[in-house]
Specification:
This protein is an alpha+beta fold. The protein has a single domain, classed as Jelly Rolls (Sandwich), CATH 2.60.120. The chain is built from nine helices and twelve strands. A seven-stranded antiparallel sheet has the order 1-10-7-12-4-3-2. Strands 9-8-11 form a three-stranded antiparallel sheet, with no helix packed on it. A hairpin with a 4-residue loop joins strand 5 and strand 6. The longest helix has 19 residues. The two termini are 22 Å apart. The structure holds fe (ii) ion. The site of fe (ii) ion has 3 residues, from loops.
Length: 277
């Protein structure tokens, strides 16, 4: 069945059709992750928010077409996406493995109170690829993703740090990017400081768009518009159950974690990132 993309256009996200191959793929992905954690092949710097979040950027060892070893990425997902995004995508990146635990988010020593409050109140909302630099966190468009593809692996419930997004925010941000980069050549786009305008645009979204929590049933994959504002909701701890992932070590707690794998293939041309509908 061909994918119906209407909710992506209207609200900035969509659940994807899938097949049994996908479920074999995620079992394989889970095995590979467990092995990597057993062998301690992870960077402690990836544990953030008082060790309640493993960021896991490019942690999954998949090939450039999304396969893991001999396990193929679902052709149904792959073909439906290829039909929509064509040949404008460079390569399939290595998947991010985002894991949260009960108690997310805790305040890190490194995190400012302002930034922690933003994490609590606004779910640390952001547009992927708009990267903050330096102490003053000046923001620039540095990565030109075609979309964000999420594969839920385990514990994806309403209370366990779900993905949060602002429906319709992709239209506001797309218009904003079209305006600020109008007439700018591809090689200059990433050197333009957009800090204040980006922050204004985000405020406009908070005022005008509804928050949606994405809680997939049966581990159904989903795809986000590259310009949709999103973040991670909290995972409140149960009363009298104090959770301490740091002391028990990550591996022992893997089964308690909320795990999502994200892919963000990039466009060849930054102008596709700005303009493509
Ligand atoms: Fe993100």
């Amino acid at each position: 069945m061909n994918q119906d993309w209407s909710n992506l256009k209207k609200n900035g996200w969509i659940f994807l059709n899938t097949d049994h191959i996908h479920y074999e793929w995620i079992v394989e992905a889970q095995k590979k992750l467990e092995t990597k954690f057993h062998q301690k092949l992870f960077d402690h710097k990836d544990l953030r928010c008082g060790s309640t979040w493993f960021v896991g950027t490019n942690f999954l060892d998949n090939s450039s077409n999304g396969n893991i070893g001999t396990k193929l990425m679902s052709r149904k997902i792959f073909n439906n996406i290829s039909k929509k995004f064509g040949n404008n995508i460079k390569y399939w990146d290595k998947g991010q493995v985002s894991i949260c635990w009960p108690g997310y988010p805790r305040k890190d020593d490194k995190e400012t109170i302002k930034s922690f409050n933003f994490r609590i109140k606004r779910f640390a909302s952001h547009i992927d690829g708009i990267i903050p630099f330096g102490k003053k966190k000046r923001r620039f468009a540095k990565e030109f993703h075609a979309f964000i593809l999420g594969f839920p692996l385990q514990n994806n419930c309403l209370e366990s740090a779900p993905l949060v997004l602002w429906e319709g925010s992709h239209k506001i941000f797309r218009n904003f990017f079209k305006e600020i980069y109008e007439g700018i050549t591809s090689d200059k786009i990433s050197s333009i400081d957009i800090t204040e305008l980006y922050s204004e645009c985000r405020k406009k979204v908070f005022k005008n768009c509804e928050v949606k929590k994405i809680t997939p049933r049966f581990k159904q994959p989903y795809l986000l518009d590259r310009h949709v504002l999103h973040g991670i909701d909290a995972w409140p701890e149960k009363k009298n159950v104090k959770y301490n992932p740091k002391n028990n070590m990550l591996l022992n707690n893997l089964s308690n974690g909320r795990i999502i794998i994200y892919f963000r293939p990039v466009f060849f041309n930054p102008h596709d990132w700005i303009n493509m509908e």
